[in-house]
Amino acid sequence: MKRQIQVAVVLIVLGGLLTTAAFFMSFYTASVQRFGTYTAEGHVDTVFDIAPSSEQVAGGVTYGRPWLAQKIFYFHVPVALASFLVFTIAAIFAVMFLIKKKKSYDTRSRLAVETSLIFTLATMITGILWTRASWGVWWEWEPRLTTYFILMILMVAYFVLRNSVSDEERRATYAAVFCIIAWIDVPISFMITRLIPSSHPVVFQPGMDVTNLVPFIAAMIGMLGVGYAVYMLRAAEENAEERLDMIREKLEA
Question: How do residues 65-81 score in pLDDT, each as one tens digit?
Fold first, then answer.
């Protein structure tokens, strides 16, 4: 457990350094790339190198993204992708629990959901700031925001379910099934902007400058490192509690 904590601390430090580096690069080395949404014939897409102010073009409207919104992008997207990835890991452990019925898989799935919820809340906060800077509103019920909000509610409901079932085996089984069902919203939320018209930009598009890509990748690696570190620290805490419970049982016996 000591080694696990040491590795977690190292990951937090490295992740913090990468995220800090991405922060400074976004201000001093990244180009202020002008990008926005283009609406035409009911289809909304992300476009690059547009005029910095709103203007009518070819039957649609382009919205220039303010400078602040671009800086938020380097943190909003990495934490969002990290939340998707960690919740996917939670669903995998949930499937493994249903197959093998091992308590350790249920514990790992729960800890992954906890970690994913942290990143989901961070995504919601940075997303609201981005929405305010880009669209001039705090919230908009467009497809990506709506499906991601539903995902956050499902994560909260997961813990409500766990706390409402007293029997340990049934609690683990119900939680595993619910986790797998809730995970279905992950690919839906990720792909929704590519499937139906949405004002939310599609991030991975041709045209992103290298100076923008480097800080994004640095922030992405940093966030994943921090996320795994949080998971490891919670796992170490869980192991310590289990050992204390075993010691108490032996003393009471």
Answer: 455 666 777 888 888 98
**CA–CA dist 165, 168 (Å, integer):** 8
Q: What's the token pair of residue 83?
A: 């939340």
What CATH number should be reported for the domain whose range is 2-32+68-252? 1.20.120
109, pLDDT greater than 90: yes
Q: What is the mean pLDDT of residues 83-89?
A: 93
Q: What angle do CA 142, 195, 150 make, to 5 degrees?
A: 45
- Phi, psi dihedrals of residue 37, rounded to the nearest 5°: -110, 150
Q: How far apart are CA 209 and CA 48, in angstroms?
A: 10
44: Cβ contacts below 8 Å, ≥ 6 apart: 37, 38, 197, 198, 199
C-alpha span between 188 and 167 (Å, rounded) = 32
Secondary structure class of 155 (helix, strand, coil):
helix
Q: CB within 8 A of 53, min separation 6: which ones?
A: 64
